[in-house]
């Protein structure tokens, strides 16, 4: 195929990877694992979502021929390992994760559209790109998955992916669509972090 | 590739998808999740098995360019959300799931044979198509996986896939093979539901 | 693509598959599952790692057109089912698993290099080939994952894959590189088994 997938400016793309990788390595550190396991979790979390998206598209994983992705993940694992835990205690890691989520959902949606999939499928692939790395991290670590928590998370991913796909299909230039969609998703996830916004849970009599 | 995969009549194919999606959405509702999470579980369960089959075949996932699959899944999530839980309480959802299992195992096996894989591998891909969506649903939800329960489930999938592959390879017309195999698997799973048939478990002294 | 992936001598390749399949079937037997579930676990464990590697490479799974892999897995499941559990009680199964790990990491790395991926990515794919089958087995069975245990496991996989990639890229003949790398990884994992060597765990104040 001659598809040219869209690219984020490299610093954003690698920044999102680094943040997700950090979250994986920090979880492994909290579970008192070795450095090698920390690095493995950094990898699973950092490239998991994009790898599943690429497997669904039937193309080789994006990081196989990229020079920077894996070194960035290794660096994130080293940082998680050597910087004392208490430095991580504020909520800024959650903010960085929110940024990674917004960026990856946007990138996944735009890449799927470049492969000419149906609009709804592109939105789904965007959500998968943003959320699946964290799901894999949580499932393998044996902790409750992020998507089962009541705070808005998948919802922010869905808003990002849907607005990105909608704008691109309406003819808005791709870069502008991606920027607006990422901002919208980041704002929603940020609002959820600040005010603990939750969607109503299923609450019929059981 | 120029492979033309077999198709189920659309109402059966989408019916199987809808039933699996329903089972995912209902599990999420029982776990008191939000609507977005319900829809996400409907997606994982409805397309998980076929997606893994397609990734193993090295081809794009079947739902990327299909117009109906994702709307059906969204509709299933809405139905699960808005119809009171007690309506779901009979065992008819298990019967519908048995139908979905039989249909998807058949479809997966026939699609694999169309890609010219080895007979045993086609049977395995049929089982994967029928069972893996439910496995992913259970693993992410953190509940015991359906394949670990003693009732016949994987066994019904194996019967379906093996009889389908056997008949097609013996020259029985594809449509007839698929119909007979689906009926056989549905009958076995149904018998297991009615009489709680179980295979003997491993029971040597531990 | 015209890539000719490297092959292990068949008896080593199938031997590694058999050992991993055995470990999956024995886990299912310990959990008192039926024979069909045992065989399914044998399959997941025996081909899981290589299948994920192939999905990441964007190529069909290696076992789809192979005549021997699935019969070997079925045979492993039968052996696990019929040979009394106490015969398995020594540690020799762990030694066989160590051999499988070393062989599969080597094979995965060499196959990835044959597809011309970046060196670090080839190492990662080698580790994935060796470790992911066991991870899938543990996650679906609901037991703590092998990569979360303190003993050297992923580390032995990393040593194997890194030394294999390093030697091949330095021009050492492929067969020699693979043999030396597999021996090194097997020796490290074996040392970990004999002396319970562990890497230091993350131990900063929490």
Q: Rough shape of chain A?
A: globular
Largest interface: A-B, 34 and 35 residues
What can be said about the biggest beta sheet of chain A? none
Helix content of chain A: 55-70%
Structure summary, number of beta strands of chain A: 0
Distance between the termini of chain A: 51 Å
What is the count of DSSP helices of chain A, taking H or I runs of 4+ residues? Answer: 7
Give the structural class of chain A: mainly alpha
Compute the average pLDDT of chain A: 86
Domain module tally of chain A:
1
Oligomer: homotrimer
The secondary-structure element order of chain A is HHHHHHH
Low-confidence stretches of chain A: none
How large is the radius of gyration of chain A? 17 Å
State which percent range the strand residues of chain A make up: under 5%
Task: Walk me through the structure.
Chains A, B, C: It is a multi-pass membrane protein. The structure is a homotrimer of 206-residue chains. Chain A has one domain. Helices cover 69% and strands 0% of the residues of chain A. Chain A is globular, with a radius of gyration of 17 Å. Chain A starts with 9 loop residues before the first helix and ends in an 11-residue tail after the last helix. Chains in contact: A-B, A-C, B-C. The interface between A and B is medium-sized, with 34 and 35 residues.
